[in-house]
Amino acid sequence: CGGGRADPPGGPAGRPARGREFNAGAGPEAVNAVAAAPAPLSIAPLAVSRRVVVGPDAVDRWATGATSARFCADLVTARHGPAGGSLPDPVAVVAALEPRLFRWAPRLLRCATEGRHPRGTLLADDGAAGAVRVAVEVDAVAVRDRIVDAVMSLT
Fold first, then answer.
1. Interval 51-61: pLDDT, tens
2. C-alpha 5: how far from its chain's center?
3. Residue of 142, 121, 144 whose CA lies nearest to 58
């Protein structure tokens, strides 16, 4: 899943993320329940997903495609302008389908519910086996190409 800012760049373990991810802020108790569940959990945080940029060449390619591809081109242009931008949700989908395109690190993850950190702030510490798996690196070109090709394959 996408995960907001779960691992601040350059920050020591336990340092709060800069700001809160919208969904985590809406239900931090739910985030904590999911993070503590025995099922495996992988998160592609914004710090990683924003490294994947769908630029003007991709948007121009989508603009020549089927109606759904043209719709995606219009959405990206409306959201980010003609230069394109990052698309965290499709990056999270690629992370789930092709995890080998990412480098992962275990983290103990929790979401602030009260106290010194704002409610909904994701807090990540270096973790042990069985912890949440957080993407820390991405093959941005390969992931971007998967997203662009997937949109072009829509009919």
1. 999 999 999 99
2. 8
3. 144
Give 141-154 pLDDT, tens digit per residue: 999 999 999 999 99
| DSSP one-letter code for 123 | E
DSSP H or E stretch at residue 45: none
Which string of b and e fits 6-24 if b means at least 16 CB within 10 Å? bbbeeeeeeebbeebbebb
Predicted structure pTM score? 0.80
Q: Closest Cα partner for 17 from 49, 50, 46?
A: 46
Distance CA 134, CA 103 (A): 8
- ∠ CA 153-84-54, rounded to 5°: 45
Beta carbons of 35 and 109 less than 8 angstroms apart: yes
